[in-house]
Design a protein that fits this description.
Helices cover 77% and strands 0% of the residues. It is mainly α and 110 residues long.
C-alpha cells in the first residue's frame, strides 16, 4: 500500500472511530437525550448505523481489492517495459542518455 492510500485509510478510519465514540458519548454530553434509547433490543436501534457502517466498509474493501488487482497488472507491465529498455541498451539500439530519459519517463507514469 503506498503512502497516499495509507493517508486515506487513516483519515477514513479516524472519522469512523470519531463517529462511533460520539455516538455512545452523546447521551452523556447532552442530558436531554433519553437513555432509554440505548437499551432494549440491539441497544434500542442504536446499532443500526454500525451495521450500515460495517456493510459499507465491507463493500469498500471489496471494491478496493478489485482495483488493487487491476493495478498489479500495471506494475508487471512497467517491469516488462524496463526489461525491454535494458535489452535495447545491451544491444546498442539506444544510448545511455536515451535509456535514462526513457526510464525516467516510465517511472513517472507509474
Amino acid at each position: 500500500m503506498n503512502k497516499k492510500n495509507w493517508i486515506w485509510f487513516l483519515i477514513i478510519g479516524s472519522a469512523v472511530v470519531l463517529l462511533l465514540v460520539s455516538w455512545f458519548v452523546a447521551p452523556l454530553l447532552f442530558p436531554t437525550l433519553s437513555y432509554s434509547m440505548m437499551y432494549g433490543h440491539m441497544i434500542g436501534g442504536w446499532m443500526m448505523p454500525f451495521g450500515m457502517l460495517g456493510m459499507g466498509a465491507f463493500w469498500i474493501f471489496v471494491i478496493y481489492m478489485l482495483f488493487r488487482s487491476f493495478d498489479d497488472h500495471k506494475g508487471h507491465h512497467a517491469d516488462a517495459t524496463e526489461q525491454h529498455l535494458k535489452d535495447r541498451l545491451a544491444k546498442g539500439e539506444i544510448s545511455i542518455e536515451e535509456y535514462e530519459k526513457l526510464l525516467k519517463t516510465i517511472r513517472e507514469d507509474r
